């Protein structure tokens, strides 16, 4: 079971590397400060929906702190806290509903919106931003939400197969 989770962490590290190295080359220069995909956050949502809430909590905490350290050094812990909290909360959903594509895309859209709103609120609280809320919603949050949903749609089938296969095989290992 640990080995399978380690492979998921390695895949997320590769997605983080892809986010930081390849995606900036694909985004036009005028949009480079607008489109900020959070691929580790997408994987946190996937782990929450197809794994369990405790794994998603620690997954979000680890990769959120990694993003804080790598990109947003003014305030360490904002992404870690928010991604961990959202991973835990979205991990509660599969207990009540079945996991479908629509539910997953809705969770990604809602999670992306909440993540960006919470980060803006935390940064505004500590006076680290100098833009208005309306500008931040129009310029950063909506394009990020749209690109996150598009990337979640592209990643849904491979990630779902990977995580469901891992969960089924880890359940077999625990039952045997």
Write the layout of secondary structure elements.
Elements: H1 2-21, H2 23-26, H3 39-50, H4 53-70, H5 78-91, H6 101-125, H7 133-175
Structure description:
By secondary structure, this protein is mainly alpha-helical. It has a single domain, classed as Arp2/3 complex 21 kDa subunit ARPC3, CATH 1.10.1760. It is built from seven helices and no strands. Helix 3 (39-50) packs antiparallel against helix 4 and helix 3 (39-50) crosses helix 6. The longest helix is centred in the C-terminal third of the chain and has 43 residues, at 133-175. The relative contact order is 0.14. The mean pLDDT is 85.
Q: Sheet with the most strands?
A: none
What Rg do the Cα atoms give? 16 Å
Give a count of the beta strands, DSSP E runs of length 2 or more: 0
Detail the poorly predicted runs: none
Q: Any idea of the CATH class?
A: Mainly Alpha
CATH fold description: Arp2/3 complex 21 kDa subunit ARPC3
Short overview:
With 176 residues, the protein is an all-alpha fold.
Q: Notable features of this structure?
A:
Arp2/3 complex 21 kDa subunit ARPC3; 0% strand; mainly alpha; 176 residues; globular
